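As a warm-up, study this chain.
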Amino acid sequence: MPDPGPNGLATVPWNHASLCGRFIASEALFALLYSFFRSGHWPVARARAVGGHGTVHRWHPRIHQGTPMKIDLPERKKLVHEMRFPVRWGDMDAMGHVNNTVYFRYLETARIDWMVAMGCRPDPDGQGPVIAHAFCNFYHQLEYPADVLLRMYVSDPGRTTFETWGTMERQSQPGVICAAGGATTIWVDFRQSKAVPLPDWMRALVE
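Now compare it with the structure written out below.
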């Protein structure tokens, strides 16, 4: 097994980099991976450089780190909502920590709570927000029991879109971000199934 390097990583020669398995939610990416499977030709992921070497998890010597997939929250954003909630026992998985998918539920709940508080309830016959892209960066594990503070921010209004962001921290450890994510939100006319300009009242909220 390679010697562990900084941050719990071990180094291996650069030319040994290989594809890191990921859970893929995007249908387009799934289709692409399926085509690789059918053809038998798999791409090789580019490893992150650490002193001229690729990196590999200390606990999983065969799983190499590819190019980091990380989106940083912008410095310029507007705080619009805070939500406090307990971690439920059922939020955890077999590894004893909150499952990655649950963080997206936390962010979704915060978005809906904020929209409802602003007087915009989901209405399939009217207009409202849909999510075009969502992500989450994981920094520290959350486990039961814990009380979480989720802060929601908005930024970058466009003609039909704006960005939402969220940070999650334990209330017992203020300022220590456990996870941070966001979503590109598009304003849609549901009957027409098409994007429409942001209403003036919504634009005023996110500017």
